[in-house]
Design brief:
Blueprint: E1 11-15, E2 25-32, E3 37-41, E4 48-53, E5 60-64, E6 71-75, E7 80-86, H1 91-95, E8 106-108, H2 120-129, H3 139-160, H4 165-176, H5 180-195, H6 201-208, H7 213-224, H8 228-233, E9 240-241
Parallel strand pairs: 6-9
Antiparallel strand pairs: 1-2, 2-7, 3-6, 4-5, 4-7, 5-8
Helix pairs in contact: 3-4, 3-5, 5-7, 6-7
């Protein structure tokens, strides 16, 4: 099997989030595999609700927690996936369960219905309508912390939010699933993946919050398993495969 080797491995289309859903939904997209390929999934700091459809298979509705490692897997043509990324602090109320237990896991959502697959915005609205009215009292604060921590760090964020560092870490981990420092590391690496291009690493390092090019390279290698130049220009071998049991697999699409 011959695989394409580029960052955008799937045909992916972003979907605008209506204003009324933005307090809950950070982003939506639909991806579709057109041919056999290696799919590259970077670490993910959001909890995601996904509706996966494939020819000849029943649709599967899944909840995936933050993923702390990348996934490279062989995928075939046909499957498509609607992804709804939830805002930090909101997932527990929407899913009715702890986010901590979903880290590096994807689990089925039973009895939610999948009849809105052809209308992503209506599907997302139906998810929000299911959310508990009993929103965690610190959900808004942690949402603000998620905006601050990647750019100014935990200490300064805690000062701005009038919390101790320890309390911020406790609340953040409870509501987001991962500690704030790990959240920030994933956020920066995802920024590199979104904006990076070989030949401008030093400029990009400063733009996304690294001290320098060396810092970017070290962090990218630690999270992605290889330096950025290798990722963008080299060959990646699968470490999983699409279609494994979603109860135990982190192959999210």
């Amino acid at each position: 099997m011959r695989f394409r080797q580029s960052w955008t491995m799937l045909e992916e289309r972003s979907i605008a989030v209506p204003e009324r859903l933005r307090p809950w939904i950070a982003g939506m997209s639909v991806s579709h595999a057109e041919s056999e390929t290696i799919v590259r999934e970077p670490p993910e700091h959001a909890t995601t609700v996904m509706l996966r459809t494939a020819p000849g298979e029943p649709s599967r509705l899944m909840a995936a927690g933050p993923r702390t490692r990348p996934l490279y897997y062989a995928g075939g043509p046909g499957p498509s996936c609607l992804r709804v990324r939830l805002r930090p602090g909101r997932a527990a109320s929407l899913l009715g369960r702890s986010v901590r237990g979903l880290v590096d896991q994807a689990v089925p959502l039973e009895g939610w219905g999948v009849d809105l697959a052809d209308d992503p915005v209506a599907f997302a609205a139906a998810l929000v309508d299911r959310a508990s009215d009993d929103l965690h009292p610190h959900a808004e604060l942690i949402g603000e912390a998620a905006e601050l921590v990647p750019s100014i760090g935990v200490r300064r964020s805690s000062e701005r939010l009038h919390l101790s560092e320890r309390r911020l870490r406790e609340l953040f981990t409870e509501l987001v699933g991962i500690p704030p420092k790990r959240f920030a590391r994933i956020d920066r690496v995802r920024a590199v993946l979104e904006h990076g291009a070989p030949g401008r690493w030093s400029e990009l390092a400063l733009a996304v919050g690294y001290a320098d090019h060396s810092h970017l390279t070290a962090e990218f290698r630690a999270l992605m398993g290889m330096p950025p130049t290798t990722f963008f220009t080299g060959t990646v071998l699968p470490n999983g495969r699409c279609g494994k049991s979603f109860e135990t697999s982190t192959a999210y699409s």
